[in-house]
Write a structure and sequence with these properties.
single chain, 747 residues, Arc Repressor Mutant, subunit A, OB fold (Dihydrolipoamide Acetyltransferase, E2P), 6 domains, five-stranded mixed beta barrel, 36 strands, 28% helix, globular
Length: 747
C-alpha cells in the first residue's frame, strides 16, 4: 500500500521517497498535491526542486522527476539491441556519474505497436520485474534531433558545426564539444543536452570521410548494423570449424562433378549444382547447399549473434557477414577441390520442367569447379565440349518451360555494380549484365526453394515462408488511374495475377511508354517478407516458397535447414566439444512459434537493403563529383509537386530536379498522371520520360545529386510544348511563373 505523506512543506528526503514510491509520473503538481501545498509553498517547491536537480539528487523535466540514477515511471527510451526479436533499451537521456551504467530494460509490447529497430526512441511506462526492469511502449517517437554522423566544419569565428551525412537531414548542428576532432573529419556525435540549442558532442572520430571504405562505414553506423563479433561468438565459431566430417553419417557425393557458378567477386559460395539426363526426356538434378546448420546450432553464442544480424550485408568494399569469417568465408563456403558439408536437395525434373520428386540428405561434397557467370556463359557459347555445363543448360531449358507456363512477373530491374581498384577507389560504375548463366542458377535455386517448402509441408513441419502478397486494392486503384492517362484499362473485377501485368507490358510497343508503365507496375507491388503462415509468392507465381539456398548469408535459410533436419531425420552424432550445442534442428521455442524470429529477420533484411542502397548512392555521387556540369541522358523516376527525380541511364545515379529550374511558367502537379504539367507551354514531365540533364551538384557524403535542364538559364527554360503518351503536341493553358498547383486527390 502506498505510503501516506504528512501535510506540510516536504524535506529533500520526503520528496525522494515520494518519487520512488509514486505509481504515476511524479511532477511538481503531483508532489505539491501529495503534501497539501498551496500558494507560495508551490513557488517554494519549484525552487527546491531546481536546487535538488542542481545538487544531482533528482533528474527530469517539470512534468516528471525521478531519482538521479533511477528510471522514471514514464520516460523516453532508446533501443540499443534486438536479441532474438526482443528489443532492449536504455533511458534516452542518462547522465549519472560514469560509475553508474544506464539500466537495460526489456521492452514488452502487448498492443502490437510498430516493430522497433536499433536506435528507435519510444515513450514507455517502466516497472520492476523480478531482478530486472521492463518497459511497456506507449508510442514511438521521432529520432532524437542532433543524434547524427557527420563531418566537422569550423566557421570563421572558430565555432564547430556538424554537417550531416544523411541527405534527409538538411541543417548542420552546433558542436558543443569537439572531443579532439578537427575540421573535415568524419565523426559520431550525440546530443549535448535536451534541446537542439545545446548542440552535439563528438563521441568518436572516424577519420577522412572521403577515404576508401568510409562510405560503407557511414552506412553501418547510420543503420546500426552489428559489425563486431564478441569473444564468445568467435570462440564457438573456431570450435565449430573443427567439427569432423565423416562419410559414415552423410551421403557421399564427392564423385559427382558438381559446380558452383557465382559472381567473379563472390566472397562466399553457398550453392552448387549438377544435372544429368534421366533417359526419359527429363533430368535428375542436385542442388548442394552449404550445411550451415551443422556448424551453427540453436542456443549458442554463434546462433544468438546470427539471429541478431539476420543476414549478411554486402558493400562494394566489404561484407558485414552474418557468421564469423572462419565459417562464412572458409569452412562453410563450397570451395573447389575441398571436402565440404552440404545439405543436398535431389530433384527429378520431367520433360515439361515440372519437379516431380524431391528428397533431402546431409551430404559430403567436393566441388569440381567454381566458375564466374561470365566464364560459364562464354564456355557454353563456345565450341568446346562442356558436358556438365551442357547438362545444366539442358535441364534449365526444361525448368524454363515450367516457368513460362506459370508466367511469373517479368520486370526488368537493372542492378548497379561498383568496381573498386586495389586502393579502394572507384574504377567503374555500371549496370550488371543479365546473362543466361544467371537465369540457369536462379531457376535451379527456385526449384530447390519450392522443394524445401513442399517437403516440410508434407511432414506437417514448421516453415519460414518467403511471402510476396498480391498488390492491395489501394495500389491497384492508383495504378488504374495512372494507366487511364495512357488510355489503357486495368479491370479490377478480375483475379489479379502476374500474367495480367505481363500481358499489359507485352502489348506496349513504344519503349518509352513501356518504361513508364513498368515503373508504375513496380511501384504497385508489395514488399516481400518472412512468415510462418503461407500466403504464396505473387511475383514468382508460386503457392509455396521458402528460402533454402543461402544459409551462409540469410538466417531464414538456416531455419529452413533446421526444420528439414528435424522432419527428415537428418540429425548428426552429438559433438564431442561441449562448447557446441548438441542438436542442429529447430529450438523448442522456434518449433512452437516462428512468428517472432520471422518478423525480426524481415526487419534486418530491410535494414540491409537500405544500407546497401545508401552506400551505392554515395559511391555514385563520389564518382560523379568530378563531372559536375556535364550533360547526361536521364529517365524520370519520380514526380512530386516540388520537382522530379531522374536517374542516369546506364549508371543509376538518382537526383532531384527542383521545379524552380523548369522555367518561368507555372507548373501543376497532376497526381493521377504522376506528372508536372506546364500551364503555358503544356510541357509534361512524367515518370519514364527520357531527358538530357546537366549535373548541377554531387555530394559524396550524403549521396545526393541535383540536376537541371540543359537549356536552363537562371532557373528558366524555354517551353518545349506538351506531349501526350504517344508524343503528340497538346495545347496547354497560360499560367503564372514560378508556381506549382496540385491537381490530385486531397491528401
Amino acid at each position: 500500500m502506498p505510503r501516506t505523506f504528512p501535510a506540510g512543506f516536504p524535506t529533500r528526503q520526503q520528496i525522494l521517497d515520494f518519487i520512488a514510491q509514486s505509481p504515476d509520473p511524479a511532477g511538481k503538481r503531483e508532489i505539491g498535491k501529495a503534501f497539501g501545498l498551496k500558494g507560495q509553498e508551490r513557488v517554494k517547491l519549484k525552487a527546491l526542486l531546481r536546487d535538488m536537480a542542481d545538487e544531482g539528487l533528482i533528474d527530469g523535466e517539470r512534468r516528471a522527476f525521478h531519482r538521479m540514477g533511477g528510471v522514471p515511471k514514464v520516460t523516453v527510451l532508446r533501443v540499443v539491441a534486438i536479441e532474438d526479436g526482443q528489443p532492449y533499451a536504455i533511458p534516452d537521456s542518462w547522465s549519472p556519474d560514469d560509475a553508474t551504467p544506464p539500466p537495460r530494460l526489456r521492452i514488452i509490447d502487448r498492443k502490437g505497436h510498430t516493430a522497433l529497430r536499433k536506435g528507435d526512441r519510444v515513450l514507455a511506462r517502466t516497472e520492476e520485474a523480478g531482478a530486472g526492469l521492463i518497459a511497456h511502449p506507449m508510442k514511438k517517437l521521432p529520432a532524437a534531433e542532433g543524434a547524427l554522423m557527420g563531418v566537422v566544419e569550423i566557421d570563421a569565428a572558430g565555432k564547430g558545426w556538424l554537417a550531416p551525412v544523411d541527405k534527409r537531414v538538411r541543417n548542420a548542428s552546433p558542436i558543443a564539444d569537439l572531443g579532439g576532432a578537427e575540421a573535415g573529419q568524419l565523426v559520431l556525435a550525440e546530443p549535448a543536452g535536451r534541446t537542439p540549442r545545446s548542440g552535439v558532442k563528438v563521441i568518436e572520430v572516424l577519420g577522412d570521410p572521403l577515404a576508401p571504405r568510409a562510405f560503407s562505414l557511414i552506412a553501418i553506423s547510420k543503420h546500426g548494423i552489428p559489425n563486431v563479433f564478441d569473444e564468445a561468438t568467435l570462440a564457438e565459431a573456431e570450435a565449430a570449424a573443427k567439427l569432423p566430417l565423416s562419410p559414415d553419417h552423410r551421403e557421399d557425393l564427392r564423385h559427382l562433378p558438381i559446380v558452383a557458378i557465382d559472381p567473379a567477386d563472390a566472397r562466399d559460395h553457398d550453392d552448387a549444382i549438377w544435372a544429368e539426363p534421366d533417359g526419359a526426356g527429363g533430368f535428375n538434378a542436385l542442388i548442394a547447399i552449404a550445411d550451415v546448420s551443422f556448424y551453427v546450432r540453436p542456443g549458442g553464442a554463434l546462433d544468438r549473434e546470427a539471429r541478431k544480424r539476420g543476414n549478411s550485408v554486402y558493400f562494394p568494399d566489404r561484407v558485414v557477414p552474418m557468421l564469423p569469417e572462419v565459417l562464412s568465408a572458409d569452412v562453410c563456403s563450397l570451395r573447389a577441390g575441398e571436402d565440404r558439408a552440404a545439405m543436398a536437395c535431389h530433384i527429378a525434373v520431367d520433360a515439361h520442367g515440372r519437379v516431380t520428386e524431391w528428397r533431402f540428405t546431409r551430404a559430403l561434397v567436393r566441388i569440381a569447379e567454381v566458375i564466374a557467370y561470365e566464364d560459364a556463359q562464354a564456355r557454353i557459347e563456345g565450341a568446346g565440349e562442356e558436358a556438365q555445363l551442357r547438362n545444366l543448360w539442358a535441364c534449365w531449358k526444361a525448368l524454363e518451360k515450367a516457368r513460362h507456363a506459370r508466367d511469373p512477373l517479368e520486370l526488368e530491374l537493372p542492378e548497379r555494380r561498383v568496381v573498386l581498384d586495389a586502393e579502394g577507389k572507384i574504377a567503374e560504375i555500371a549496370l550488371r549484365e543479365r546473362l543466361d548463366a544467371h537465369r540457369v542458377v536462379e531457376d535451379f535455386m527456385i526449384a530447390a526453394n519450392v522443394a524445401a517448402a513442399k517437403a516440410l509441408e508434407s511432414k506437417v513441419a514448421p516453415v519460414v515462408y518467403r511471402i510476396h502478397e498480391p498488390p492491395n486494392r489501394e495500389k491497384l486503384v492508383a495504378l488504374k488511374e495512372y494507366l487511364s492517362t495512357f488510355e489503357r484499362k486495368l479491370a479490377l473485377g478480375q483475379v489479379v495475377t502476374p500474367s495480367l501485368f505481363n500481358r499489359l507490358l507485352k502489348d506496349i510497343a513504344d519503349e518509352a511508354e513501356k518504361a513508364l508503365v513498368m515503373e508504375a507496375v513496380l511501384r504497385s507491388q508489395t514488399q516481400a517478407y518472412y512468415g510462418p503462415r503461407n500466403a504464396g509468392h505473387f511475383g514468382l507465381a508460386l503457392g509455396s516458397y521458402a528460402h533454402f539456398t543461402s544459409p551462409i548469408r540469410r538466417y531464414a535459410d538456416l531455419l529452413v535447414h533446421r526444420a528439414l533436419v528435424d522432419s527428415w531425420g537428418l540429425e548428426q552424432p552429438r559433438p564431442a566439444d561441449k562448447l557446441i550445442p548438441a542438436t542442429s534442428g529447430l529450438s523448442e521455442t522456434d518449433r512452437a512459434d516462428l512468428t517472432r524470429v520471422s518478423e525480426a529477420i524481415s526487419v534486418t533484411e530491410r535494414r540491409a537493403m537500405e544500407a546497401e542502397r545508401d552506400t551505392i548512392d554515395r559511391y555514385v555521387a563520389a564518382w560523379l563529383s568530378g563531372r559536375v556540369g556535364e550533360v547526361f541522358p536521364t529517365r524520370v523516376s519520380g514526380v512530386q509537386s516540388f520537382g522530379m527525380f531522374v536517374t542516369i541511364v546506364g549508371l543509376g545515379g538518382d537526383g532531384l530536379v527542383p521545379v524552380s529550374t523548369l522555367g518561368a511558367e507555372r507548373f501543376s502537379y497532376d497526381e493521377k498522371a504522376q506528372a508536372l504539367v506546364g500551364d503555358q507551354s503544356g510541357e509534361r514531365f512524367v515518370i519514364g520520360r527520357l531527358l538530357d540533364m546537366r549535373l548541377a551538384e554531387a555530394n559524396p557524403l550524403t549521396g545526393a545529386l541535383k540536376f537541371e535542364p540543359v537549356d536552363s538559364d537562371g532557373g528558366r527554360v524555354e517551353a518545349r510544348g506538351r506531349r501526350g503518351p504517344q508524343g503528340k503536341p497538346v495545347q496547354g493553358k497560360r499560367g503564372r511563373p514560378g508556381n506549382v498547383r496540385h491537381q490530385g486527390r486531397k491528401r
